[in-house]
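--- STAGE predict ---
source: upstream dedup step, 1 unique chain passed
mode: sequence only
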Amino acid sequence: MRNYEVMFVVRPTLEEEATLGVLADMKKVLEDKKAKIVSEKNMGHRELAYEVKGFKNGNYFLLEVEAMPDAVKEFDRIANINEDIIRHIVVKVEK
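--- STAGE serialize ---
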């Protein structure tokens, strides 16, 4: 297992309940691939550095996970498909 930080930004036009639903769905994608979510942080509504897909702000989430590379690849694939996620990044953490 490797350590990763996964950050994604959910579009700001969603209501809070739907935004938390996106978070739950993305956590499920990782957990279905046997990833362990070490910590989860809702960073709240923030302004983007530049406009992305017509949005100037979004709801940020940060997950620290222990996972195999295939779990992270699946997260990346689903995040690219999901229209509610306007930007995401996965960073491998060296410990």
